[in-house]
Amino acid sequence: MFLTDRISMLPAALLLLLNAALSAAQTRQTLALNTVVNEAAPNPPFFTIPTGNVLAVSIALCTGTTDTPVPRFFVTNDSSTASPGSGGGDNVFEIVLDHGTGSWTGTFPAGGVVGVENAPPQMSFQIGLSSDIPIHQVVNTSALLGDTTASQALLFSPPFSPQEVQDPSYPNYTLPNAIPSIPTPPSNPINYTVIVAPTSNGLLAMQQTACALSTQKSTGVVANESLWLRDNSGWRKEWLMTGLTAKTNYTVYTIQDTYKVSKPIFFTTKSSTFSCSLVSQLPYCPTIAYAVPLPQPPSPQITYDSTNLPTSLTAPLISSLTNFTTTLTTFACGRDFYSPLVTCADCQRAYRIWLCAISFSRCADPDTAPSAAALLPSQSPNARNPGFPSGRSFTQLLPCLETCTATDRACPNFLGFRCPLPRFNAAQSYGVGYLDSGVDGVQGGGSTGSWSDGFGNVWCNSGW
After folding, report:
1. How would DSSP label each residue in 245-298?
2. Is 80 exceeded by the pLDDT of residue 33?
3. Which end of the chain is less crowded, N or C, counting CB atoms within 10 A of the terminal residue's CB?
4. Is 192 exposed, middle or buried (0-12, 13-18, 19+ CB in 10 A)?
5. What is the pTM of this model?
6. Is 319 helix (H, G, I), strand (E, B) or coil?
7. Does one domain contain both 248 and 186?
8. 108: domain range?
9. Which helix (H) or strand (E) segment is 49 a member of?
10. Would you say residue 442 lies in a domain?
């Protein structure tokens, strides 16, 4: 008896179920535009792409490590190739994965197909289809470290919603006040989340995708999350992390809009004997976000900001900014130009950064600071700002000399602003030779070329 005869003899209800099962097994899921599907060992291993001018297909692996076997993904925009794979065919392209992420962008005049090969049963992944720009990405920007204590860290997201700076012009050349007004935050900011984990947890060995990293519970507690405009690059999410462990290496990722992941940064918390406190969110010093030689603020606050800083620190600084701006505007800033490159507004901005850097001494921890850092044992009150409470010994991370010379370059000569020279006594009060090259007696010869790096090393205080 033939197989068809045997099948024809089955009960009608069973035939209906069998036909439904066979039909379902051959059904291919159609990807919808600007959506993401989650899959694991799909059957059949093909996904249909609708027609479109320029579409981006993106892949993100959600499980496994960078050393485990991974599936291969192929895409075609040729309607005659129904099952794209490693066997080739007309207009078949492999979506190459890098640390778990890959994408392919092209036109689909007659639609297309995505094929999956060698998918391990335990491997889950996401497929996204979008217009032009891939949904899954590893973005080039990364989080920014402000500073740490033994159990806290100030972290910032990559910038977004940049502010357009319009310098004043003649005849109404009015510079910002010493305490400038903060612009209204964006009503629809980018959705960022932060992941912080001990580096020993092995996040670097995971697939570097948002769906994989999001499975890891972040260490510590986000005690405060807010928006802050640090500079002209744009707004940032600011996170205050608490509950961290002293002298521990941490890895930080930020995830943007659920599917985009930043490159990691690293930091080390200070030793348990570190006694300085974090300060941030100062409108008159918007870039300041580090530890200063102050005791812990009164409960319930756990860091300092513009609402609880002692007036002995803020009053002289605001007065200096006000007086400097008044003196600067005695020059005909909007009509006569003292430089073809910089203006009075540039001078005021540079002076603000320098004044804030020297007014708020930055604490360092000799146990965790890089060996080449510009450290100086200090006693509060110190010569730069006697407003700090007395009787507190701390190690100061000296300001970068370039913070001073940037002000010297940006300001008109009649102000008489001068910086110490490297070949004489600059190293007594500034970090010398970390940024600029070794000329004219500069110590270190620009040995790092940067005031900080993505591993949490800070060699001098730039005021940023």
Report:
1. PTT-EEEEEEEETTTEEEEPEEEEPPPTT---EEE---TTSTT--EEES-PPPS
2. yes
3. N
4. buried
5. 0.89
6. helix
7. yes
8. 23-135
9. strand 46-49
10. no
Q: How many CB atoms lie within 10 A of CB 317?
A: 22
Name the token pair of 19. 């036909």
Find the angle CA(178)-CA(376)-CA(427) to the nearest 5 degrees. 80
Question: Which residues on adjacent β-strands are paired with residue 227?
Answer: 237
| Residue written as token pair 């409470």 | 389
- pLDDT category at 7 given cuts 50, 70, 90 is very low
Reference 114, options 64, 39, 24; nearest CA is 39
3-class state of residue 94 by DSSP: strand
Q: Which tokens go with 267?
A: 């930091």
CA nearest to 464, candidates 403, 384, 374, 382? 403
Three-state DSSP class for residue 62: coil
Q: For 174-231, how does the pLDDT look when each residue is reduced to its tens digit (9 = 90+)? A: 899 999 988 899 999 999 999 999 999 999 999 999 999 999 888 999 999 999 999 9
The SS3 of residue 409 is helix
Beta-bridged to residue 72, according to DSSP, are: 117
Distances (CA, A) of 149 to 224, 323, 358, 382: 16, 34, 20, 21
Residue 169: count other Cβ atoms within 10 Å of its Cβ: 12
Give the count of domains, the chain: 2
The answer to whether residues 218 and 112 belong to one domain is no
Distance (Å, whole) CA 7 – CA 456: 70
Q: What's the burial of 133, exposed, middle or buried (CB within 10 Å: 0-12/13-18/19+)?
A: exposed
Report yes or no: 35 and 55 within 8 Å, Cβ to Cβ: no
Give the Cβ contact number of residue 89 at 10 Å.
16
Q: What are the strands of the beta sheet with 92-95, ordered from one edge?
A: 29-30, 46-49, 112-117, 72-76, 92-95
Q: Are residues 172 and 312 in the same domain?
A: yes
What pLDDT digit, counting tens, does each position of 275-325 carry? 999 999 999 999 999 999 999 999 999 999 999 999 999 999 999 999 999
Q: Could you tell me the pLDDT band of residue 449, with boundaries at 50, 70 and 90? A: confident
Separation CA 127–CA 132 (nearest Å):
15
Calpha distance 156→146 (Å, rounded): 7
Q: CB neighbours of 23 closer than 8 A, spacing ≥ 6?
A: none
Helical H runs in 329-461?
Answer: 344-359, 401-410
Residue 17 domain flag? no
Tell me the two tokens of residue 49: 């792409």
Question: Does residue 413 share a domain with residue 385?
Answer: yes
Q: Rounded to the nearest 10 degrees, how much is the dihedral formed by the CA atoms of 84, 87, 93, 99?
A: 100
